[in-house]
Request: fold
Amino acid sequence: MSSTQYTKKIALVDCNSFYVSCERLFNPKIRKKPVVVLSNNDGCIISRSNEAKALGIKMGEPYFKAKDIIVKNNVNVFSSNYSLYGDLSRRVMRTLKRFNSEIEVYSIDEAFLDLSNFKDQDVEKVGKEIRETVLQWTGIPTSIGIAKTKTLSKVANHIA
Ligand SMILES: [Mg+2]
Reply:
């Protein structure tokens, strides 16, 4: 016999390669290409597309260290544009509030959502709906980890 259960469920929604995803919204030509975004003074790599990760470019690596790989592989390089990222972050967070008005913004591209008000057996479907809605309304792809506590949902997100 299955009964309806409402146990504690915390979701961590994390935007995938957030700064790169923001740049891609306005540059459809770089959608399937390697892309990196540099820090304020163009010193370090702070966001990488999966294609850039596959080339071995490391997070936080100084630009000069990765320059050979970047030039050889025609990696698209962007200076960071924080007003754009902030604007898109607010759009993502507003969309998440549709599922639970009390979200906890954890960083520019991550938020915790308490999904305990959804039935346990519905939670996977809700997670899928959140990802689809955020993608449709903002163009930003996300990953979601769902668990009983914030710490565990962060772990679950990394596995997902
Ligand atoms: Mg992220």
